[in-house]
From TrEMBL:
Quaternary context: The cytochrome bc1 complex is composed of a cytochrome b (QcrB), the Rieske iron-sulfur protein (QcrA) and a diheme cytochrome c (QcrC) subunit.
The keyword Repeat belongs to this UniProt entry's keyword annotation: yes
Keyword Transport found: yes
Main location: membrane
Protein species of origin: Streptomyces tunisiensis
Protein name according to UniProt: Cytochrome bc1 complex cytochrome c subunit
Domain Cytochrome c span(s) in chain numbering: 47-127, 143-221
Bilayer topology term: Multi-pass membrane protein
Amino acid sequence: MKKLSARRRHPLAALVVLLLALACTGGLYAVFAPADKAQADETAQSLTIEEGKKLYTVGCASCHGTGGQGTSDGPSLVGVGAAAVDFQVATGRMPAATSQAAQIPDKPAVYNQAQIDQLAAYIASLGAGPAIPTEEQYGPEGADAAKGGELFRNNCAQCHNFTGKGGALTHGKYAPSLEGVTPKHIYEAMLTGPQNMPSFPDTTLSEQNKKDVIAYLNAVNGEETESPGGLSLGGLGPVSEGLFAWVFGLGALIAVAVWVAARTAKAKKS
């Protein structure tokens, strides 16, 4: 007991006790602490990718190849990114009914959003590409609809019409109407350039520019938007307006000319 008491009074005794306490505390924490968050997230992501691969094998591999490398019936998906998958699958364009059509139309989605996220995660794992945008990126906060209108008319109206009503292209292709398309999918379309559409990465149209374009489309296609000129004739611009003038305006002139000629002929006979 005297020896033990003497050791307690040793100058390093307090330091030794402190080190032992810290070691015990660290050991207990390592044993009982929850799994590291990063490791848990990585495990969850791995499971998502695995589920996405299963869905891909069943519904996509026949056209795009077992590893997304593409085939004669479908392009490679390596590097297209999660945003392209979310757009194509959520709008029902994929899976396509046929790969021989001039353009693949939108239709009701085959997969639910959870499955779409799994497919997107798997395709994203094949190669780096655009990620699915967040609500902060495509939301209305801080957007300038007037600036968006200018950008839309300069970059998009040639195909989609100045109010986004869509229009015809060559060889059976067309620019679809943007009415009713969600802001998220409009953003993804600009980001990835589906089918005949060119892509507008952030180096071409910044994140703020894309938000502005979406704000403009929401403004011109909103439920409360009214045409200041009366009937909008589909918002198709001078083509439909010219056709209206040609059919009804010229038709009225011909009718008047026939009526005048008939009256003149009748007067001469009298």
